[in-house]
Each structure stands twice: as structure tokens, then as C-alpha cells.
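Weekly structure sync, notes
Attendees: PL (lead), two postdocs, one rotation student
Agenda item 3: pending single-chain targets
PL asked that the sequence for the first pending target be pasted directly into the notes so everyone works from the same version. It is reproduced below exactly as submitted, 392 residues in total.
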Amino acid sequence: MHIDLDEQAYALAILSGPPVYDVGEWTKQIAALAQEVEAHDLLETGGTAKVARHARERAKATTDPRETSRLRLLSEWLDAASGAVTDWQAQSNRALLCREEELIEFFQLSRAALADYGIETPDKTHFEVTDQFPKPFDRENWSAFCPDPEDEKRFGIRAGIYLRRDRIRPFQTACLVAHELIHVVPGLKDGDLLAMGLEEGLADLLGSLLVARRLLPANVVDNVFTYSRLGPPRALPASYLQHARQAFVVYSQYGTSGLVALVNGGRRAIHAAERALVHGEVPVLDVPLASPERRELGSIARLLQSGLNHLVVSPLEYRVAREATAGLSVQDVSRKVDVEEEDVSTALSALSDRTMMIVLNDETIEFSNFDVYGESYPRAASTTLRVSLGEG
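Predicted structure, written out during the meeting:
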């Protein structure tokens, strides 16, 4: 199955984790660069390297420091992506999880992983990739839809999981399948209640993160979550992130047993727990208190609790921030990044005003905390300082 350049660029981001704020900006700009040099396969090392060289050549040809910074960063991140592609190619399973048969297999593997946790989904659970959702939901622009038996009774829709064919994305849709599976079980008991709020948080934490991590590399899962939940402010992703943080409160007190108990308990149990959380209380569950496995806890905590989505800078500011160590002058930084002093000074002032992570004394950097927020490939979530490629 051939996928277009936008989807290939998205897959590159998921595999390599560049610290971009809006993965949509990345996919458009990488795809455009690839088209300029007729690189049709970004998921081959040679294709990615070709586009990286092109970005470097374009950076040398421009005198605009902002455009130079953007292109230099893209070439740098493409070099890292080329290494990630090499690692991916070496794996026995190189599926992008875009084909319908791959997603059906992932659906069954996710059901088995959930069963290991103690959550059983019916063998007859319907799974379908469709061009349009069943009526009366056919005009919804969702990526996925999980009607329950109550919907089947009211609207004649077969209960199960539906995916929109035109919304399938490499790796991301697979994590979404694991998310949707969590909705199946509460809907068996209390289909008359709305499946939102804490239930979405449980679906993200238990499905999109914990179950998906059993089936996919952790950095792939983390990057999918980061780009979908910690990107530009949109109402639905922001809401889901907050509810995932609610679910994390349960997880930190009861471990996975608490999450499983709520899912198996049905929507009334989930709503009761959510009511407690809204009032600042830890829900009382009929399971023993248990600490999550330390390594898993730390990784999930970094995604849900340590991830910040407000430290967003331009490409030029990002390059300057990486060199902004205490004791250096504007002139020193200018030499390091090969940018005019006036532009460096403007960038440092903007970083100081917007992030409050740097203190300037005239033309000298007195204090800087930017070293705390450095790069950490291949997990985008490990890099809190994020770049908006749409900014100058």
C-alpha cells in the first residue's frame, strides 16, 4: 500500500520525535521539500537523506535568518529521522498499521492485551473500516466511533468500533483502536449514559498508552500521544488530556487494578469516580491500594504530568535558546549560531519575555534554564521546548 508524502512525513515524526509543536506543520513542510527534489519514499534512508541535503542547500542559499533557522532545523531533524528509519527497517515487523488487514490484526492483539489486564471484550465485537459512519452519525468528522448496544437498539447501528478510512494515519490509528476498545466494555452495562469525561481519560491511559505499549515501541506510542494531546490548543484534545490526568490519579493510587475495576464496573461506576475527582477526592474503589510499576509510572507521569505545551518558540529562537548558557554574551551566541547580533538580541529578549527562563543583563546572559529542556530523541515528549515551524 502506497501512502502519500504527508502521511510518510507524519510517520517520520512518529518514528523520530522531532520537537515540533504542530505535527501538521512538519508534515506539510517535509512533504513540500520532498516534492521539490522528487523524493517519493521518505521511509527509505536514501529518501530522507536526500531531503535533508536539499534543506541544507536551501538554508545556505537564503539570507533571511528566520528561514535559514527553519531549514537548518528541518535538515538536522531529518538526519535524526534517517537514523530512525534505518532502525525501523531492521525490525522484523515494519508495518505502518495503515492497511485494513493490519488494523484488524491490531484490534485482535489489543483485545488479547486487554484480556491479560482482566478486561474481556465480546468475541462478536464488530470492527469495521468505513467511508462514512452509519446514520444518524454520518455527518460527524470523527476518526473513530464506538456505538454501544443502546445505540444499536435506538438507531439500528451494529455495536462495535468503526474507523473512517480517510482518517487513517500511520501508527496513530492503531493507538486509537486500543483507545476505542476501552469504550466497548462500559457500554455493555450502562449504554444509557454518556461516554465522555473520565471514560475518555481511561481510554487514553489504559488503551492508547498502556495497551499500545505492549504492542508497539514505547517511543512510537509516546510520540503519537504527544502530537495528538500536547499540540496546538484545540478543545477536544485538551479535554482528553485533562481527563487522562484524572485517570492518572486513580492509576497512581491503585495501579492498573483501579483502572480495570472502573472499566469493568460500567459507566455508573466511572461517573461516580469522576464525581469524586471533580470534588478533589480520590475515588474509593473496592480494590487494594497498589503502586504502579515504577518504570511505567515514571514514563506515563512524564507524558501526562510533566509535559508542558506552552514553551513554544520560533525556529530562530530555538537555535538561540540551545546556546543560551549563563555567562555568554550576545556576540558569543551570534558566533555559535552564525546569525547577526541584532537578530540574536531580539530572539533572546523574546525568549526572556515569553518563557521567563532566561535573565539578561544588558548584552550578557546572567541566568538560563534552557539546558533543562533540551532535545531527547526519539521521544518528542522528552523535549518540553517545542518549535512552531509556522513562526518566523
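Discussion points:
- Residues 5-89 form one domain.
- The mean pLDDT is 90.
Action: rotation student to compare against the earlier draft before next sync.
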